[in-house]
Specification:
The complex is a heterodimer of chains A (115) and B (109).
Chain A: E1 4-7, E2 10-13, E3 19-25, E4 31-37, E5 43-51, E6 54-57, E7 65-66, E8 76-78, E9 87-94, E10 105-106, E11 110-114
Parallel strand pairs in A: 2-11
Antiparallel strand pairs in A: 1-3, 3-8, 4-5, 4-9, 5-6, 7-8, 9-10, 9-11
Chain B: E1 4-7, E2 10-14, E3 19-25, E4 31-37, E5 43-50, E6 55-58, E7 61-66, E8 71-76, E9 85-93, E10 96-99, E11 103-108
Parallel strand pairs in B: 2-11
Antiparallel strand pairs in B: 1-3, 3-8, 4-5, 4-9, 6-7, 7-8, 9-10, 9-11
Amino acid sequence: EADIYQTPRYLVIGTGKKITLECSQTMGHDKMYWYQQDPGMELHLIHYSYGVNSTEKGDLSSESTVSRIRTEHFPLTLESARPSHTSQYLCASSDHGLAGANEQFFGPGTRLTVL
Amino acid sequence: SQQGEEDPQALSIQEGENATMNCSYKTSINNLQWYRQNSGRGLVHLILIRSNEREKHSGRLRVTLDTSKKSSSLLITASRAADTASYFCATGGGNKLTFGTGTQLKVEL
């Protein structure tokens, strides 16, 4: 079944640790996105990719980095986690849009807590 | 600044009542989308309305778009407890979406 997956769902980690949040989709979508969302707040785009070897920074500055070596995989890495990185991270993907943005499909999210 | 802002920020209604949420945006758009987010989960796409459309229906959902006022509304008719969630509007351009601040809807039995 075509879907988008994120692991882990929850992560509690100490300051200074390196972490990688995984995102995979089996829908064959070219475009993938990472959003950051604090509880009860709006989503902020932090990274996006239009295809393999394409990565762009989003509207909200983030210390995280991403890579897109395979179409289906779009991991996000924090080299040194800090308490300010505590948030929910949502991954999404979409197909080509003929005019404007197409529907985005979201993963379940990773709730990160940095102690 | 946020492209989309929803109001109200929170809404509590009884099951069976209708719920209306509004979204305002700032710049010209190609389309506007509405998403739902259950607590602690990812977003689910509900409906997309293009800039040349004024109204669109999907099941119990009705969306209107007024490009002259840069506003949209989402109406959920005959609400159910399962409709309890946060609802976000999103405007698109260049294959990116900008999300609004969201309306938290609570439907009580």
